[in-house]
Write the structure tokens for this entry.
Amino acid sequence: MSVIAEENVRGTGGSVFKEISADNDEDNQPTEIESLCMNCYQNGMTRILLTKIPFFKEVIISSFTCPNCSWSNTEIQSAGRIQDQGIAYTLKVKSKQDMNREVVKADSATTRIPELDFEIPPYTQKGSLSTIEGLIDRAVEGLEQDQQLRNATAPEVAVKIDEFIDKLKNLKEGGFTLVIDDPSGNSFVENPFAPQKDEALSVSHYKRTPQQDAQLGIKAEDEEEKPSNDIDCMRNEVLTFNTNCPECNAPASTNMKLVQIPHFKEVIIMATNCDDCGHRTNEVKSGGATEELGTKITLHLTDVSDMSRDLLKSETCSILIPELEFELGMAAVGGKFTTLEGLLKDIKDLSMDSAPGNHCWLGYLCHGCTVIGRKLCTTPVLI
């Protein structure tokens, strides 16, 4: 997260961040930027304000409104760095006055209400500057968003969610505990008695775990770098290297990944996509050693659903279809990880490219062909 220092800006000689004030100060007006609405894809207006939260720190508040579709969105970001320690606020909400407390909730914060066993996980909402009542209203809006669809598809679930929404609305009278846990340390709950201590509010700092550091995109100082060729890293990464398209020879990229097939073994899947001509290829190679014994698999297809079975064909595999007196030798199609239907399609494409005048495996015969170079007859007849 970038840091904006309090320095002279645009030659004004003042601070970038101004205290929140109700006075009409020209130096504390938001900056307006015309931007694209992601709801109707027409132009709307984004307002950005750099301000200070009393007894907290500097923040960046942005608000977008679209005059065409009336869509709006607000977001808040910390203008400082990620703190050295995480922070957890625990507030005993006792009255309606407590519902008006100002709250800064970063997108990395987890919000909990233990009495209802309710939790808003981190990164499921954008950062916001609101009140406790506003946090509850936002949670209610999120739950009500898909209620119409739930009433049509899962009415029992919709009824339970309606009951829970009523419980959330009843919290506005007070009598519950609000916990905001932010590993970045950039969330805040207002203390209306500051600088005196608030008996209803407890604040604790803690050291982040390695998992929390990873979620925030930072690494602990004592964390050792793993070697780039670690086998565990290769299983979780897709390796990409440059190559040329076998059809048009244009520059393309090949993706390679090590995959563990359940109840089988590890294989290496390679796929090449060409953006110029649209050509696509995929190939599978065994990730282990050659077995001592060969394997023969016989499948009797009894239903159309059998065509959707996953199939792994190695480079040394031959295929036999007795009903068609068809046999495909080793390395004719190459290694494939596909479905049975996909394999048959590849065999069909290969057979149609065979020499004219020969019977393909589907019973086609190229009739009256005139061969010019590699051009084949495009009007086969079925025998």
